[in-house]
Design goal:
Layout (H helix, E strand, L loop, with lengths): L9 H8 L6 E4 L6 H8 L5 E6 L2 H11 L5 E5 L5 H7 L5 E7 L4 H5 L24 H7 L2 H12 L4 H14 L5 H11 L2 H4 L7 H12 L5 H10 L1 E11 L2 H14 L20 E8 L3 H6 L7 E7 L3
Helix pairs in contact: 7-8, 7-11, 8-9, 12-13
Length: 309
């Protein structure tokens, strides 16, 4: 199967993990295997667990990484990380990576329904299971739709768009990407449509997040990722929009928080010590990568190292 995907911040991410040849690593969103392949090259007696929930990705990972005897490919959601490691008899690992973006394959394969540039069924399911974006668009009431578009897409015209969607679906169900994009475009003031990129971008983002439950349980999953690290192990996360990045930043900061005693206390009585330290605050794509892969412009990499159990 052809699976085109350019791994963003590839060099920076691999460097952030400080891969040990005999270490155990997890790629939680392996996709086309770009990051996994680079990790595998650096292992000798070590082991890599490559996880993805997209069956297309799993097929490609087995083809591309099958030559590596020390790689285990797992078809699952990274939210199941603890269960996956337990089933493999692994308690702690040396590094965990998660790229929270949509793969180029998912965006470019029209029938997957992620893009507003190609006329296709309004699907957007990464796992290709469960409710589609069309199901949500045609069943959520106006208030719920507006809330999703505003909170997940940070779209200031969310009410206008939700109202237009409800009005149009009463005429006939909204089943394709292009029809939805046109409804959104017509719901936004003409002056706004001329600036800030495609008018449907934020709404499509919000529906993708909802359809794949991308933010549901992310904070708890970050806890699981950090807890499965050995002392000295590193967790590297790549985000693509402010909601995810804010959540990752806040969780990382909480892992680094030490004493919480009131400042007037002469000595610490809480006994709390930082569990982690930031390897760096964040990194973004450089000019060369931006020129080669414009989709990297919104990517942010954060990395934390575990200090103690």
């Amino acid at each position: 199967m052809e699976f085109s995907h350019i791994s963003v911040l590839l060099e920076e991410t691999i460097e952030s993990l400080e891969i040990k040849p005999d270490g155990i690593y997890v790629d939680c969103t392996a996709g086309g295997g770009g990051h996994s392949g680079e990790i595998a090259k650096r292992l000798t007696s070590g082991r890599l667990i490559s996880i993805d929930r997209d069956p297309d990705a799993i097929e490609v990972l087995n083809e591309r990484l099958g030559k590596f005897e020390n790689i285990t490919v797992v078809h699952s959601n990274y939210s199941n990380l603890k269960e996956i490691l337990e089933s493999l008899g692994i308690e702690k690992v040396d590094g965990v990576l998660a790229d929270l973006g949509v793969s180029s394959h998912q965006l470019d394969k029209g029938e997957r329904g992620f893009s507003f540039h190609t006329d296709a069924p309004l699907d957007m399911r990464m796992s290709q299971e469960g409710m589609t974006a069309a199901d949500y668009v045609n069943t959520l009431d106006e208030r719920a739709l507006s809330k999703v578009i505003f909170e997940y897409g940070e779209e200031k015209f969310a009410r206008n768009i939700a109202r237009a969607i409800v009005r149009e679906r009463e005429i006939s169900p909204i089943e394709t990407t292009v029809r939805l994009a046109e409804i959104i475009k017509n719901a936004i003031p003409a002056a706004t449509r001329r600036t800030g990129g495609h008018p449907a971008r934020k709404t499509f983002q919000s529906l993708r997040i909802l359809t794949n439950q991308e933010l549901t349980g992310l904070s708890e999953t970050l806890d699981d990722m950090f807890e499965c690290l050995k002392v000295g192990g590193r967790l590297s996360i790549i985000t693509f929009h402010s909601l995810e990045d804010r959540m990752v930043k806040q969780r990382f900061n909480s892992f680094c928080e030490g004493c919480v005693c009131p400042p007037e206390f002469p000595v610490c009585v809480c006994g709390r010590k930082p569990k982690g330290k930031l390897v760096f605050k964040f990194k973004r794509a450089g000019e060369k990568e931006l020129a080669e892969n414009p989709r990297s412009r919104s990517a942010t990499l954060r990395c934390i190292e575990r200090l103690e159990d």
